[in-house]
Backbone:
């Protein structure tokens, strides 16, 4: 064996040890030097891609691994890592396809079985199929705790809470050093109403690994901070002095923002929310958003709907749409507590199915795929019916009674109301609304993770611009949509809960049932930023929250412009200066609405 080969083997071995110890930068540096000397060394490139992914640099991981994939197309491990990278990038359908390819190469690839099962559960609602994949992974390797952990969450969603907790405890036993086990099992205990056990697990996790900021983030959401919380507050402040990952540091800042908000130290809270957002800020392109809204409103014109032949489909779907943080989770949980409904949560099924169809039509130049909504111009009734069939099959995979009303709370379905009107002409649409400043500020204070990437949400000006575009899309639907829509204001629901809920149920074709007034008592899985709130009765704490942060909100007020015309007096009382119309500057193609 040559000296060069010996050196390569030694450096690669040392780099792997550094990777195992979490010394990611050192591992990346050593592996990068090795790969520079031997660009076609697939083993080194594969390990470097792993390191980049662990360092939360998935784009570099993908660039590093793609040449390997072209040479190692038979490797299940390479396909599996590609799946992990795409999952980290938020490309869920691509991740699913890569995991499936990994299993074609090796049906016993444990990691691919585990990850595919999770994605099928989260993004396709195929929970039974997902559970079977995870059970297979466990049968192949009973000590593989990630499979136990994922299976626990899925079984809980399938109303098998005893089996779920059994697998959750097994995951804790086998993965006692993995913080993910504590966080996810704590979440299950929270779902069951055992908040003290959830907090105990998270406290233990924070001791095991003080550099994992996510434990502090979840701890902050499980409690209301007061003077007795000083010890935890000090630990979170001290954590910022540790060598945290970007995700960890961001998590701690958002946790501290929540803590100081509870303590009514508004300026301290805003500072931490601002720092957290700056760490994960992405470029938001207002012009691209404007162009998208223009395409959408031009395509879905009144003439389009007049020319379409609506499909004959059941009236069972209820779609809840609107901006994030607008009270939608509260509405969903109220409806989901009715015995004749079943919530799908924030399902991505419909957007995924529609986008896949649009992408299947090549543009005339043959180089690009036709984006939504333009691709729908090539769709036949048969194409559209296939979407309906696939959606309903997934939606009802967990429902025994076909007359049950399924609830889809994917908020960004507001963008898809045009095609929903064609696919489900008898569907019920519920549009949740909240005060613009409260909605936008709450988005700014919400840690939208990589899996729910929202580039517009990390800057007040960008949030204001995006909110403008959302309002204009909704105004367009009111003019042209051949569907009735129930628009519910969060403030009205808080002020008159029973009256508002009765109107809501009537609109949905549901009879009155007193259980809807006790929605917070129902035990079931909730995948949303509003998890803690929906475990409480209706409360008023979030009304006019913006006033506490008024001295930080001038950029948002400027961006919202005319949308705050009716708030001039309240804004001025809070020391804010309402700005003249920005409509023509921001959205020159908009018509008056």
Residues:
């Amino acid at each position: 064996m040559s000296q060069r080969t010996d050196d390569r083997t030694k450096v690669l071995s040392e780099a792997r040890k550094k990777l195992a110890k979490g010394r990611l930068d050192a591992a990346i540096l050593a592996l990068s030097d090795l790969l520079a000397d031997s660009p076609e060394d697939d083993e080194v490139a594969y390990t470097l891609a792993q390191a980049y992914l662990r360092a939360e640099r998935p784009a570099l991981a993908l660039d590093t691994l793609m040449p390997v994939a072209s040479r190692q197309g038979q490797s299940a491990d390479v396909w599996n890592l590609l799946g992990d990278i795409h999952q980290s990038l938020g490309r869920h359908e691509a991740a699913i396809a890569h995991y499936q390819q990994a299993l074609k190469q090796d049906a016993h690839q444990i990691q691919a079985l585990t990850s595919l099962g999770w994605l099928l559960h989260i993004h396709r609602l195929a929970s039974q199929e997902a559970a079977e994949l995870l059970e297979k992974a466990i049968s192949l390797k009973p000590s593989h705790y990630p499979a136990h952990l994922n299976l626990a969450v899925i079984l809980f969603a399938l109303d098998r809470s005893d089996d779920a907790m059994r697998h959750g405890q097994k995951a804790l036993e086998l993965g006692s050093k993995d913080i993910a086990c504590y966080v996810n099992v704590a979440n299950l205990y929270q779902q069951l109403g055992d908040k003290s056990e959830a907090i105990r697990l998270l406290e233990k996790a924070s001791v095991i690994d003080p550099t994992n900021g996510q434990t502090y983030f979840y701890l902050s959401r499980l409690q209301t901070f007061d003077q007795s919380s000083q010890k935890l507050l000090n630990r979170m402040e001290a954590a910022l002095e540790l060598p945290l990952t970007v995700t960890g540091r961001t998590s701690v800042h958002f946790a501290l923002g929540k803590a100081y908000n509870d303590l009514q130290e508004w300026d301290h809270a805003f500072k931490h929310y601002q720092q957290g957002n700056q760490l994960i800020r992405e470029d938001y392109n207002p012009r691209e958003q404007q162009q998208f809204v223009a395409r959408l409103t031009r395509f879905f014109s009144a003439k389009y709907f007049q020319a379409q032949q609506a499909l004959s489909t059941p009236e069972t779907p209820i779609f809840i749409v609107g901006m994030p943080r607008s009270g939608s989770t509260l509405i969903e949980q109220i409806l989901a507590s009715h015995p004749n409904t079943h919530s799908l949560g924030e399902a991505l099924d419909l957007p995924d199915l529609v986008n896949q169809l649009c992408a299947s039509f090549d543009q005339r130049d043959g180089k690009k795929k036709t984006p939504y909504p333009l691709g729908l111009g090539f769709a036949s009734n048969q194409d559209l019916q296939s979407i309906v069939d696939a959606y309903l099959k997934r939606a009802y995979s967990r429902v025994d009674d076909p007359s049950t009303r399924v609830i889809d709370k994917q908020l960004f379905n507001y963008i898809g109301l045009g095609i929903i009107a064609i696919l489900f002409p008898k569907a019920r649409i519920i549009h949740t609304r909240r005060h613009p400043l409260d909605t936008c500020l709450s988005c700014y204070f919400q840690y939208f993770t990589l899996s729910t990437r929202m580039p517009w949400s990390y800057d007040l000006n960008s949030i204001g611009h995006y909110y403008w575009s959302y309002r204009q899309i909704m105004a367009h639907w009111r003019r042209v949509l051949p569907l009735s829509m129930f628009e519910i204001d969060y403030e009205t629901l808080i002020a008159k809960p029973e009256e508002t809920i009765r109107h809501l149920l009537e609109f949905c074709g549901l009879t009155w049932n007193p259980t809807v007034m006790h929605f917070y008592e129902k035990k079931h899985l909730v995948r949303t930023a509003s998890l803690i709130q929906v475990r409480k009765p209706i409360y008023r704490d979030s009304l006019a929250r913006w006033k506490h942060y008024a001295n930080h909100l001038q950029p948002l007020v400027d961006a919202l412009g005319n949308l705050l015309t009716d708030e001039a007096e309240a804004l001025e009382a809070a020391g804010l200066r309402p700005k003249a119309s920005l409509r023509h500057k921001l959205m020159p193609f908009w018509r008056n609405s």
User: Anything to note?
Assistant: Strands lie at 318-322, 341-343, 405-408, 428-433, 485-489. The radius of gyration is 25 Å. Residues 179-280 form a domain with the Serine Threonine Protein Phosphatase 5, Tetratricopeptide repeat fold (CATH 1.25.40.10). The chain has 29 helices and five strands.
